[in-house]
Amino acid sequence: MDKPKVVLGVSGGIAAYKACELLRRLTESGHDVRVVPTASALNFVGAATWSALSGHPVSTEVWSDVHEVPHVRIGQHADLVVVAPATADMLAKAAHGLADDLLTNTLLTARCPVVFAPAMHTEMWEHPATQENVATLRRRGAVVVEPAVGRLTGVDTGKGRLPDPGEIFEVCRRVLARGAAEPDLAGRHVVVSAGGTREPLDPVRFLGNRSSGKQGYALARTAAARGARVTLIAANTGLADPAGVDVVQVGTAVQMREAVLKAAPDADAVVMAAAVADFRPQAYAAGKIKKKDGQEPEPIILVRNPDILAEISADRARPGQIVVGFAAETDDVLSNGRTKLARKGCDLLVVNEVGERKTFGSEENEAVVLGADGSETPVPHGPKEALAETVWDLVTHRLG
Ligand SMILES: Cc1cc2nc3c(=O)[nH]c(=O)nc-3n(C[C@H](O)[C@H](O)[C@H](O)COP(=O)(O)O)c2cc1C
Predict the structure, then answer these.
(1) Which of 105, 133, 209, 236 is catalytic?
(2) What CATH number does the domain containing 393 carry?
(3) How far is the CA of 73 from the centre of ligand 1 (A)?
(4) Which ligand 1 atom sits closest to the C-alpha of 10?
């Protein structure tokens, strides 16, 4: 089989060097990559590097090898175009259809999925001109990955950093896997919770659970690859931030509730994949609880935590919002799931069987997605991202 053909556009940002790592990952995973830098990009990383790493000639303009009509052919033959980093200038040109070099021509001739990974100073990113250009590109079906927050050129810190190349690679892999399918969550905002809350007992101890957060992160990544703006509310996962996803870190169930209620008002869908503790210790000991000779330990009194899923299901932040819950059951999985779906009032409930060696921390999952409309969608044993794709299929169907 032919290798999938990827065009890696590189525009003139300081993060151009990170595209070398993205190129490596793409070639090493069996993609045929043609690098198309802009003239400005070559001020940061030279043509020799791109050519040697990709195994293809490199040109920035339309006047080389004219007999091969590269300004048309490169785009026409691509299975994916990814521009990383995408400068403010490149986003503006792409949004307005300018075609004054090889990369901008390629963007106009490509009929495959296009991913932009912008990187720039926060002021440039937040400028209404850039934001309107991004909105235009997303409306047309491009996947524009949200920049990360962190150190920028010089001493500045803020939003605008190129996400980790490994994470951009993950977005490319998922977009390629979807092929010509439309990014059906484009223009949508989705909120996903992940991980397990921890309820502190004293400064060193907590009541927690075994959730790794991997299923929630798979949901966030797949939603981003399908074009959604994603807010991921993560509790104690220790996982790398997925590219293009706004990550809010929380610790306890009460903090999780606050973060979900803050993000939900403009969300089209809220997917609660996190394992939120049902109970928390009534009292928090300001100092470490000590053993006392000859004395039994004090009992720990638990109080109920807020039921976030029931609350957001009953009180939809916007009309038509879809709410999805997860039920981790150890026995009577389906009948407990049906009862929980009715009690919580959500639209979909993903029911899976959990145990010490099942689901938690694993890369794979197996579940049945129950619908409030009586539907049952079994998802066979497989990668957590396959379950995530099914959840988004069911959500997009309900969003219309
Ligand atoms: C040192 C330096 C770093 C730059 N970094 C960025 C950047 O990260 N993002 C950006 O949008 N522009 C950046 N610029 C500005 C672009 O290089 C400039 O807008 C250029 O015209 C972009 O051309 P291109 O989009 O054709 O590559 C930088 C310029 C310099 C001199």
Answers:
(1) 209
(2) 3.40.50.10300
(3) 27
(4) 27
The answer on 213 and 170 residing in a single domain is no
- Is 358 inside a domain boundary? yes
Same domain, 167 and 207: no
Which one of 59, 61, 89 would you pick to mutate in the ligand 1 pocket, going by the greatest count of ligand atoms within 8 A of its CB? 89
Instruction: Mark whether 220 and 154 lie in a shared domain.
Output: no
128's tokens: 């209404």
What percent of the chain lies above the pLDDT cut of 70? Answer: 98
Domain harbouring 61, CATH code = 3.40.50.1950
Ligand 1 site residues, Cβ closer than 6 angstroms = 11-15, 38, 40-41, 87-90, 119-120, 124, 153
Separation of CA 346 and ligand 1 centre (Å): 46
The residue whose C-alpha atom lies closest to atom 16 belonging to ligand 1 is: 12
Residue 184 within any structural domain of the chain: no
Its pTM stands at: 0.78
Domain ends where: 178, 204, 221? 178
Query: Ligand 1: which atom is nearest the Cα of residue 93?
Result: 25
The atom number, within ligand 1, closest to the CA of 162 reads 8
Whether 234 and 378 share a structural domain: yes
Domain region containing 239:
189-399
Region 131-143: mean pLDDT is: 92
Based on the fold, state whether residues 33 and 139 are members of the same structural domain. Answer: yes
Cβ burial, residue 122 (10 Å; 0-12/13-18/19+) = middle
Q: Exposed/middle/buried for 258, CB within 10 Å: 0-12, 13-18, 19+?
A: middle
Same domain, 156 and 217: no
Please report whether residue 183 resides in a domain: no
Per DSSP, the three-state class of 138 is helix
Q: How confident is the model over 231-254, as a mean pLDDT?
A: 94
**DSSP codes, 162-179:** PPPHHHHHHHHHHHHHHT
Residues 247 and 101 in one domain: no
- Mean pLDDT over 86-91 rounds to 98
State the number of CA atoms in the 13 A half-sphere of 49 facing the CB: 16
Ligand 1, atom 7: closest residue by C-alpha: 13
Residue 105 annotated to the active site: no
Domain total in the chain: 2
As a whole number, the mean pLDDT across the chain is 92
Q: Which residues of 366-378 are buried (b: 16+ CB within 10 A; e: fewer)?
A: bbbbbbbeeeeee
Can you tell me the distance from the alpha carbon of 116 to that of 111, in angstroms, rounded to the nearest whole number? 15
